[in-house]
Amino acid sequence: MKKSIVVFLVLCNTFLFANISLNNSGRINYLGEIIESEYYIENGEYYIDIDGETLIGNSLFIIDDGFLTLTGEHDNIPTWLRIYNKFGDQLFLKRFNKVINISISENGKFAVFFDGNVLQVLDIVRLQLTSYERSIRFAVNNSGIPFYVDQYNDIHFRDQIFSIDENIRTVLFHNEIPLIFTKHSIFQLEQKLQKVHTFSGEIFEVKNIENLLYLVIKNNSNYKLLKFNDSKNIEQIDEINFERSSNRIHEPIYAPLNYGEEDFPFPIGNSYAEIQQYGTTPYLHPGVDYMGDDYQEVYAVHDGFVKAVLTTGGDRYWRVAIANEDSPEETQGYLYAHLNQNSITVNVGDEVVAGDLLGTLYPWGFADFTHIHFARIFCTGTLWYGDWWTTENNLLDVINLQDTIPPIFEDAFLGQRFAFRDIAGNYLDPLNLSGEFDIIAKCHDIANSVWRIDLHDLSYSLHPISNPDSTLFEQFSYVYDFDLDTYHSGIVDNMILNTIYSRDATCYSIGNYDFREYYHIITNSNGDSLITEEDAAESFDSSQFPDNYYYFKVTARDASLNTTIDSMLVMFNNGVHTHNKQLQIPNYELRNYPNPFNPSTTISFELTAKDAKNAKIEIYNLKEQKIKSFPIYQFTNSPVHQISWDGTDQTNQSISSGIYFYTLNIDGKDIKSRKMILLK
User: Fold this and answer.
1) Which of 29-33, 106-110, 650-654 has the highest mean pLDDT?
2) What domains appear along the chain, each with residue ranges and CATH number?
């Protein structure tokens, strides 16, 4: 059954000269011959109906005597490239890690794109690929010869290398002549490289349409559309005034939609690092999807410098990456994905301020899922090639997000709130547990929308049936705040996914338009914030406790710190009597109040006189970097100790808002850890 249908307009090469102008964002707007096509999903596959033929894909390009399609739901899963003839027969199929900024030669016989590692030129007629070095600025002529700029700003064409002192923005072929565009100048490569035009304003956009060259020249908020009738005869055909900045004030961050509106109930379609599976390959979602309306405006959330404007597929995958600092070294920034290409208001190299308009949302067309994919990223280089990492859950930092809906637990297995699975994969009777096992909790969150999303963090604890308010064991599971390499190699991403999510036939985690089931292996953690390969071997050892009835409690929180606690009665049967093991281990009663806190919190704990001689409290950030240490120099008459922390590091400098861990360390060993949140 077709899940969602949308009709798009596809432009071919026939041009109507009366239909070219500037749109409201200062981009070139033109219409050609309209070809009606229909996009839909059926049984998890993407299809396009065009000219009476059905093609597989979700992005479509018109080529010589046929069609080229791409299937790539998200940036971090492979993209399938297919070529069809005009009768709908598939002629070519190949998978690439990425298909970035694909473009077609004027005669429709060649395609060129960056696959994440090298530049690829595809001969559409012979169905052959030729690889060249890494490039994000390129074009291909009607003979299949690429013209590209490498990462060092050197120009390559026909085995020759040229250099200019200005930073190159884009290149293209005009009447088969290579042209290079910098911020203010046009260079022509014909036997030799020469500058042919210089403008006082900035070259904002350039297009080659039916062998005529069109440029947009920007002076502050003024945009002029110029047409080159020949190299000397330049005609202005349109002009608009557009102010990119909203002049809004930026604080720690506002959401990229409805910018600046306070306490707004933003609907969230996907949360950070939740499992996704569209097709065969599961992955962790590298960002947060803020749901919006078709053509809704998107704003910058932070001052910065534009490092990338690119698409990883077709029209719906255009994105802007903005670094917080203008540096070729590693720096943090933000990604804004799924913009209308002709609405994007910035180019690489531009400086933006928080509140600047970046563009509008692309009409998604599937499952009523128009959204901005928004992520905090970090990368290196003067230009960014799409191989950035994503980091941290930005939902925690959006200060104007209002969400009051707490997480929701569901039964994980056969009417049981939690599932218990041994190392061999067998599911256990909760009233006859022994040895080591994993605990699986099924839960999700809802954030102002109909879509299930995943959580912010999970923890669990063990309580005696005789006194459920006392705690025998407590451990933090994990926080969905990992660094993800899904734009690079996927090694870290895959390791985390297979550690925190259950994926067997009984408890099968999945997330897509139709199904969202999150089964969390909460015991696959050693209690710190990082997930490593060793965490997959962690489990709960029931033999450390006397045989008895207990309550397992699981605590789930979302990014707005809404909390839900659920519990389940279990019984241990290991032949361990009350006088053994765990009851002789002190609890230490480590806690802090208030939590969350601003500006300070008090950490309290219990120690014996012996332990106090070699004990200290240590504070760490999410990357396990030590922030501050508090040695305990003397033992008081009371076993209860207190330490006040004012949110400063070891040099007494204030630190930023976020999640921190405090650990009780005795004789060089971490005895107990808990989590706290600093909100400024």
Assistant:
1) 106-110
2) 2-205 (no CATH), 268-396 (2.70.70.10), 408-584 (2.70.50), 591-678 (2.60.40.4070)
